[in-house]
Specification:
about 475 residues, alpha+beta, Jelly Rolls, 3 domains, 8-stranded antiparallel beta sheet, 5 helices, metal-binding
Length: about 475
């Protein structure tokens, strides 16, 4: 019997007794013990569930805490970072235009009028958008020293953000002329946010390094984006946030088909995308059983950037909203409307569509097989390398020579050419020699080549002669 069934069975056996006799009888004591045990068991199960959820989220977060080199290689196979460029800047006030901080011209001469200046603002800020969504590795800020004539130096206490992620916090009594901050985060906006009042923010140039992300262009932005997890400001009864992403299009809240917050000020629902994306469109399913006016005034943001605000008397049932913002966190918030009364947030389903990030990774050379050569008339005619050889190294060499195929011989030789297979094919056991630059691969044998197809081809593919 279950814990609850045992408790109620004992209660039914003692219905004929009075409450006082029930408390004094041995069976009554048993009822109390069972009830106490049930309560303790329920608490233990809740704690175990919370621990399990925490471990699951921790595992997801740890998977995203990759090294800079790993992330760069995931994007396109190379760990080299590039210069990234900014456009469409704004700042808290315009004493000198913010464009001076993104014009690719570093002039730090005091009062040169070639730096972006704000007036003495309350918590001044600067923001600019990258040309493309990118993985940002580091940001270099150029400014001028000793600006106290115009106000406090805002760069003595500020946060540096990529998207809505704070990648650096700087607190110091000393100013600087230029400083580099590590970031290693994905986004399309750079923001410098000072925490000082009556302070002047001066930026002569903002230089960003990293790598542009590749986006899937399949289906013209109609690719369904996967939401890995969600959260809500509160939960009424058991109408949890996952009910808005469970692919159940039933719009009856009373049947448990919707996510639903308690009545509060500015309730919100948030979904975390499995991979960052340009969110092109949201499809929102309101509750249909009643009270559709609860979803009349709301805002949609992606990584803190507003992409749509709905404020109308017309009640929505199922409706699409255009967005076109990049990020990984999508939030729907009931906004302050005509009244500041508390409100519920009902969401029966939220579907997201757009252009997800695609991690290309390293392009590996494709192994073809084991083939013999002839000394006087070789298939692969060019000897390109003789030292510490591996398939990756030979692949890079032959790619630069614009050759479609390469072969590894005798464990250390790299040969490049336009065709292979003129003398038949050997069994794999004859390509037995270990590569001297890699323990993972075999590199042919004497006058026998392990043939690969070059991974990066910038030429018309040659048809091999068999």
């Amino acid at each position: 019997l279950s814990c609850t069934s045992t408790y109620y069975l004992l209660r039914r056996l003692l219905l004929i007794k009075t409450q006082s006799k029930l408390a004094e009888s041995p069976t009554g004591v048993a009822v109390k013990m069972v009830r106490k045990f049930c309560g303790s068991l329920a608490l233990l199960l809740q704690l175990l569930l919370l621990v399990g959820q925490s471990q699951q989220f921790l595992k997801e977060d740890n998977m995203k805490q990759l090294s800079r080199s790993t992330m760069l290689k995931m994007i396109d196979g190379s760990d080299k970072e590039d210069r990234l460029y900014l456009e469409r800047c704004t700042q808290s006030s315009q004493l000198e235009s913010c464009q001076f901080a993104v014009d690719d011209d570093i002039n730090q001469a005091p009062w040169s009028n070639e730096c972006a200046f704000t007036t003495a603002d309350m918590r001044p800020w600067f923001e600019a958008r990258l040309e493309n969504p990118s993985f940002v590795t580091r940001i270099q800020l150029f400014t001028v020293r000793n600006i106290e004539e115009r106000g406090r130096d805002a760069l003595r206490d500020f946060d540096l953000l990529v998207g809505d992620f704070t990648c650096a916090r700087y607190r110091s009594y000393a100013s600087f002329s230029n400083r580099t901050f590590s970031c290693d985060n994905i986004g399309e906006h750079i923001r410098v946010q000072s925490h000082l009042d009556h302070a002047v923010l001066v930026l002569c140039e903002v230089v960003v390094y990293g790598k542009v992300l590749h986006l899937s262009r399949a289906d013209n932005g109609n690719t369904r984006l996967k939401v890995s997890r969600c959260a809500m400001s509160s939960v009424e009864k058991n109408n949890i946030c996952e009910r808005a992403i469970d692919n159940n299009l039933d719009q009856d809240l009373k049947k448990g088909a919707c996510a639903y917050t308690e009545k509060e000020k500015r309730p919100w629902w948030e979904g975390r995308l499995e991979v960052p994306a340009i969110v092109r469109k949201l499809r929102v399913y309101n509750r249909a059983d009643c009270c559709q006016s609860q979803l009349n005034t709301f805002e949609i943001t992606v990584d803190g950037q507003l992409c749509f605000r709905y404020d109308a008397d017309k009640m929505i049932n199922v409706q699409d909203f255009e967005c076109r913002r990049f990020g990984s966190r999508v939030r729907i918030t009931i906004a302050m409307g005509k009244t500041d009364d508390n409100s519920h947030l009902p969401l029966c389903e939220v579907q997201l569509y757009g252009f997800p990030v695609v991690y290309l990774g390293a392009k590996k050379p494709s192994y073809i097989g084991c083939f013999p050569e002839r000394r006087l008339k070789r298939d692969l005619e060019t000897l390109a390398g003789l030292n510490r050889m591996s398939p990756d190294k030979c692949d890079r060499i032959c790619s630069r020579m614009n050759k479609p195929f390469f072969g590894l011989q005798q464990g250390f030789q790299c040969w490049c050419g336009d065709h292979y297979g003129s003398y038949g094919r050997e069994r794999e056991k004859f390509c037995w020699m270990q590569c001297d630059g890699s323990t993972e691969y075999k590199c042919g044998a004497k006058m026998i080549s392990s043939i690969f197809k070059v991974s990066k081809q910038e030429y018309e593919k040659s048809k091999p002669t068999r």
